[in-house]
Design brief:
Blueprint: E1 3-11, E2 18-26, E3 29-36, E4 42-47, H1 51-67, E5 71-72, E6 101-106, E7 111-116, E8 121-125, E9 129-133, E10 139-144, E11 149-155, E12 158-163, E13 167-170, E14 177-181, E15 188-194, E16 197-202, E17 206-210, E18 216-221, E19 229-232, E20 236-241, E21 244-249, E22 255-259, E23 265-270, E24 274-279, E25 283-288, E26 294-299, E27 304-309, E28 315-320, E29 324-329, E30 334-339, E31 345-351, E32 354-359, E33 363-368, H2 371-378, E34 386-388, E35 396-397, E36 408-409, E37 419-426, E38 429-434, E39 445-446, E40 457-466, E41 470-480
Parallel strand pairs: 6-34, 10-35, 36-41, 39-41
Antiparallel strand pairs: 1-2, 1-5, 2-3, 3-4, 6-33, 7-8, 8-9, 9-10, 11-12, 12-13, 13-14, 15-16, 16-17, 17-18, 19-20, 20-21, 21-22, 23-24, 24-25, 25-26, 27-28, 28-29, 29-30, 31-32, 32-33, 37-38, 37-40, 40-41
Amino acid sequence: MARETTYLELSQDDGAAHKFYEVTVEGTAVSVRYGRIGAEGQLQSSSFPTVEKARAAAAKKVGEKVRKGYAPAVRGARAARSVTRRQVASAPSTARAVAPVLWRFRTGSSAFGIHVDEDRCWVGNQAGDVYTVSHGGEVLARYSLPDGVKCLVADDFWIYAGCDDGTVYDLSSKVPFGAYGIAADVDIYWLDIHEGVLNVSDANGGLTVIDHEDEHQWSRKSSGGGAWMVRADERAVYHGHGNGVTAYAADGTGELWHTKTPGGVLFGWQEEHSVYAGTARNTVQRLSKATGAVEASYPCDAAVYSCATSPDGRHVFAGDSSSSVYCFDADGHRLWKLGTGGGSALSMQYLDGRLYLVTTDGSLVCVDASEAAIAAAQQGSVPTAVDVKSAAALPVFTPAASAAAVATVSRASVPAGAVVVECVQQGNRMRVQVVSEGFDLAWHVQFPRGIREVGARYVVDGLHPAAGGFYRVRGEIRRLV
């Protein structure tokens, strides 16, 4: 039986895309493999009644990609994007007591990504899995992304996962969509998003800023390498690297200040007026956002992998390379040190008296950080941690890579209050505009590039205005048919 394979690549000069698309026809079977160049990618297969219909379907798929800029290529001729898997050591804790862990969910792979909000906890690991877990320890949903998750970040309602394939996925609805593509020559270390603007720190100490239309805005090279920290607000971007923390004006017009830290920065956190830098020299430092002045120091007993604060800044938490977690008061006095009971905390977040950790052994851990629970733990009395199990029938949500993968809705079935948008060609760019009444028609809509087709209309649950003069989609995206 004849086997026909067409292999295409899209690798733009600015690095915004670095991916392949391969279609194979074998008899009445058609298989499609796609993903970032150099990776195995994802595989989809389908069958057709006749050979002719299989070939026609394959030709249609190839034609769609060619119209989007893909071109024939030779597999393996172009190098894969550079990816650094963070190498972290995790020694046993030297603390005399173990933290009061309420529950623990083991994801199966080392985890860096965490986000905790009022509704649920999110964890993303190096296998590309993202899980949501209730505050009571029940696994609610699972997303399967094409590559390892570097970090999870929130921007108001929207949740994003930055992955090693160079794509930042929007997880705010059931189906993940690729929201941003990062240049192939940027070896991603960490991400932050503010008002739809993406900030990327990288292995070489670089900082790249991308706007809501997934277009490069500005970049800088800081004085140190290995930039594991980037935090942003409306005033500035705070970039932590091997030589300290540098603040740049949000519009890219210049450096505001630079503060050298004791050792390279391995993690960063921010509050309204301060940024916190966890360093390789066993210290967390609190820096003024206005001037970069050191406001307080929080000494640990090993390299600091992560840090966080309570919302009022009353308490500062840190996780070190020796599987310990610390709590300090705002002035830097250590209140307690306890073992995590399972690996070093690579990221953390505090909410409502609980400290949530993701660790080197791939666990999402919920710690009771109340004063009573910590006092009991220091005396050796801790609760029996619940080992959270993932439900076997848990649905798995994978990214929608093309318009064909998007759910449809008929004109007669458009829900009340939903908004219709349309893809239009403007010069050499495809934009998305609002069709429904009651919106500023001059504003564009932030919309996944991978599913845009000229002339196609989509129905979204809602649109929210962003400070930069554009709309952001909230809820599900369905194609109008």
